[in-house]
Design a protein that fits this description.
It is built from ten helices and eleven strands.
Length: about 325
């Protein structure tokens, strides 16, 4: 008997979620599968006792080499609501401080009999490497500038929940696209579902090359707001910057911050989104984050149900992304 989700398929990774591209031969179908299952887990989360026995006996470990609040707690809550056992790896109190290698850390965790490893790391490619060493399923919770696939899934679900779907929506992703793994996953997911995506940023905060990115580009936020259905704001990731890419935060806010004045330019139906943590007063004004169209809290709430769906599909369903397993 093979492990859940271990059957062969034509594209992507049958037992891991490292990239949006791992969702199957047709990414849109893979996303829709997660969305449909998330509907069920939203209902579970609204119960008086929000718990089901689906993953009882399974163990999920959080292997976070970067600080995190939303993502780590969301995955741990998701696993517990599915009745899985959880373990949390803390770099500060681990043998990494004594010089233990990443591979030895992974093999140590594997020896404890875990079923899924949720990995967050400052270096791109680490979750993919962990998947080469581990028999457990690996879920990318953010790696460097690369991807953050479950963030993209919860963003798609939030738009679907609040606006009926992603297809045909005009989505502006504003800010530090260059250093944003969220932007990379969101562009892949949004465009796969039929959205029109515009990146809005100064040239210094865009990737060196946008070859292969199915997007438009603008350097003028004011010019795109009136035709925007979703305004997705990114924070300035100063911890990933090795040089000064904008003259000052004040000038950045003056040109690219979603101030109250700019928010008034958005259509009445427009959604305002942010992956967190927010730098209020920089990329978004404090009062704008509280507007009716701001769905930032919804994103966090939906993150639990989406991650329940991902864990279920990898560990509990016996199917892989986009096809039947040979279990």
């Amino acid at each position: 008997m093979s492990r859940p989700g271990s059957g062969a398929r034509r594209h992507g990774d049958p037992r891991n979620l490292i990239s949006i591209g791992d969702l199957g031969p047709d990414v849109a179908d893979g996303i829709e599968e997660v969305m449909r299952l998330t509907d069920s887990f939203v209902e579970v989360s609204e119960r008086a006792i929000p718990k089901v026995p689906t993953l009882r006996g399974r163990t999920v470990v959080s292997l976070f080499f970067e600080d995190s609040t939303r993502t780590r707690l969301s995955f741990e809550t998701a696993a517990k609501r599915l009745s899985a056992d959880t373990m949390t790896f803390s770099v500060g109190t681990s043998s990494v401080k004594k010089g233990e290698s990443l591979r030895d850390t992974v093999e140590t965790i594997e020896a404890m009999g875990v079923d899924a490893i949720v990995v967050r790391h400052a270096s791109s490619g680490v979750p993919r490497q962990v998947a080469q060493w581990a028999e457990a399923s690996v879920i990318n919770a953010g790696d460097g500038w690369h991807e953050h696939p479950t963030q993209a899934l919860l963003d798609c679900y939030t738009i679907r929940q609040r606006a009926g779907g992603v297809a045909g929506k005009r989505i502006a992703i504003v800010g530090d696209v260059k250093h944003s793994r969220v932007a990379r996953s969101d562009v892949g997911a949004f465009t796969a579902l039929g959205a029109e995506v515009t990146l809005v940023a100064p040239p210094t905060l865009l990737p060196p090359s946008l070859d292969g990115w199915p997007v438009k580009v603008s350097h003028d936020l004011d010019s795109v707001l009136a035709s925007t259905d979703v305004c997705y704001l990114l924070r300035m990731q100063r911890e990933r910057m090795s040089e000064a890419l904008v003259p000052s935060l004040r000038e950045y806010t003056a040109l690219y911050g979603l101030t109250a004045r700019r928010a008034d330019l958005l259509p009445e139906h427009a959604l305002i989104m942010h992956p967190g943590p927010m730098n209020r007063g920089v990329e978004i004004a404090a009062e704008v984050a509280e507007r009716q169209g701001a769905v930032i809290v919804d994103q966090v709430r939906n993150g639990v149900a989406v991650r329940m769906a991902v864990l279920f599909l990898l560990l509990g369903s016996g199917t892989e992304w986009g096809g039947e397993s040979d279990r």
